[in-house]
Amino acid sequence: MNKLLAAVMKKRLSLVLSVSLILILAASVFAIEIPKGKTGNDYANEAKSHVRGISAEETKELMDRNDHVVLLDIRSFAEFKEHGWIPGRTVLPHGMVIFKIKKIVPNKDVPIIAYCKKGKRSAMVAYQLQQMGYGNVLYLDGGVLVWKRKGLPITTSGISKIAEESVVPEGEMPTGKQADDFVAEANRLIRGVGSTEAKQMMAAKDCVLLDIRSAQEIKSQGAIDGALVMEHGKVVFNIKKKVHDANSPVLVICKKGGRSALIAQQLQEMGYKDVHHIKGGLLAWKEAGLPVR
Q1: Among 105, 116, 202, 270, which one carries the catalytic annotation?
Q2: What is the chain's alpha carbon radius of gyration, rounded to the nearest angstrom?
Q3: Is residue 105 domain-shared with residue 197, that is, in the same domain?
């Protein structure tokens, strides 16, 4: 009888503990507020409503008949290795485009075709270029994946280098928005914090430090321990998979503070409520004598 009573009590205790655990987990889940702003697809679709996509076949034909077409590859170096690239392209990763394009393409009328893996990031970049005053900007519809499926030329040999000098004849410069205009607009909406204040915020265990630099930058410049690394162009598509709570404090960092301001603005538009970027970026952090690895 005593053994039977003990078994019943053990089962009841196990049930109580199970219910308690479920309630605790439910409470933690319900405490999370899902970000309810824009999504990555919203940004891509908005861009596509302003900029025309061009098919792989049309792109190949245009490149064959016009030596001054700029095929702008905005992907990361890791993507080059995975998917290859289209011969004759100009390399300028997503986050660097608005800051370097006028040096690379000093002619507002030259045809520019931006491309990425699937066509979403390139549409967003093409829209930025259009706002900057470039008058003949397109994006490769379906990206390099569609190009490959069509059996068009692809290569994986050679060295990929970020463009640093003009790749077309000079002409009339675009007169739209400047890179500084995009950054200034972001800074009107997002508060930048200094390195010391950022360090204090990071002491809170739920604070997310989002490093949006490329793998090459991190290798050459160093990084801050514990950062969530997510390259600039992929943030709007992937951040909600990693940062689930709209109320999580998020600090964004890049090299100098320009790109991080732009991403912080997008995160706010996506529904994150406590977003800042580190003024002066990693360079300011290092100048303040704070640790990097």
Answers
A1: 116
A2: 24
A3: no
- Parent domain of 190: 180-287
Closest CA to 215 of 227, 203, 201: 227
Kindly state the greatest CA–CA separation across the chain.
Answer: 97
Note the pTM of the prediction, 2 decimals: 0.88
Domain count, the chain: 2
- Closest to 113 in 3D by CA, of 151, 167, 76: 167
Residue 26: inside a domain: no
Residue 207: active-site member: no
Q: Report DSSP letters for 214-225, one per residue.
A: -HHHHHHH---T
* pLDDT, one tens digit for every residue, the chain (293 residues): 555 555 545 566 565 456 555 544 444 445 789 999 999 999 999 999 999 999 999 999 999 999 999 999 999 999 999 999 999 999 999 999 999 999 999 999 999 999 999 999 999 999 999 999 999 999 999 999 999 999 999 999 888 999 999 999 999 999 999 999 999 999 999 999 999 999 999 998 789 999 999 999 999 999 999 999 999 999 999 999 999 999 999 999 999 999 999 999 999 999 999 999 999 999 999 999 999 99
Q: What is the CATH number of the domain that holds 267?
A: 3.40.250.10
Residue 38 within a domain: no
Of 129, 146, 174, which closes a domain?
A: 174
End-to-end CA distance of the chain, in Å? 65
In a domain, 2, yes or no: no
